[in-house]
# Entry
Amino acid sequence: MKKLLIVMAMVGLTLSANAQEDATPELKYSVATNSFWSNWFVEVGADWNAWYSNEEHGQDLRRLPLRKFRSNPGAALAIGKWFTPGLGLRTKAQGIWGKAVVDGDNYGNCNKYWTLNEQVMFNLSNLFCGYNENRVWNVIPFAGAGVSRSMTYNRYGFVASVGVQSSWKVAKHLNVYAEGGWNLMSGDADGVAAAPRHRGWDNQDNQLYAEVGLQFNLGKSTWNKVPDVDALNALHQSQIDALKNQLNDANAENERLKTLLANQKAAETTKEFVNTPISVFFNLGKSTIASQKDLVNVQALAKYAKDNGSKLVVNGYADKATGSAEFNKKLSEARANTVAKELVKMGVDNANIEAKGNGGVEELSPISFNRRATVQVAE
# Structure
């Protein structure tokens, strides 16, 4: 029996190593928890079973698992769910054709049965190597417990199970798997209620099995990457900084004009006012005015133009660091036209307004200051 277990382990490792060579290399990453309805699977398999009953202890029967008096085919059906890439639960039913190995004359003795196990599964590939949705193979040991029933002899009993599974991804929702396992049952699972006379393995009825089958993944079978919180925070911070810069620019312009008006004579103030471009700012890629506060000084200049019959020039700009030259040219023209329409609403004759688009520039720093249009009296 020890030889059998060693052979099964070596086969599993060999298959896993071969599959690993075909795996698509990709960086592992942390995953977010999926909903309850994600990562379910159904397995359908065919078994070859070998039975070792407690009654055969001391009879020196052949121990090879493929001996006719102790082996039979079987079938398996399971449903399970992965709660994380490395931890899952599976409910597995096996059964139909078993053996009751009682003595050397027991060839062909049938024991129809079924077992129902609840098993914990550990995906070692994901636990030790990190989750990779393109991984071709996975190595998955499992252990659990449940109930067994001999339908031939109408007996129920306890069963414990342990084993290892290797699975290979062949399509998005389809895997092929092979597994080997051991079901340790109560001593009368084969229909013979022998008195306990031994310890461990020899005091129980045992089923060793090898199984191959198909695994069908239901619904979403992958795991989402955890969002990069640092990158999101950096993006939000850059947007906040841009708004702060725009506000600071507007406040600085207002303060400059207030100081100018307060400290100079009326005539000099008026001359400086009409010759100074008034800025109206826009958001990235937009031609709608970011803040109506920018129009306060524009309205004062519009009043001066109406009172004095002056012509006004509106220059539109975009920042050179973003967008193509063709796009920035059209965007700057749209911004100039937006401000020109506001001047018309303020009572300035459209014939006295000249609107020009100057494309992308980098005259001001930071670059966001260039997303503007200026208004001034024509020279």
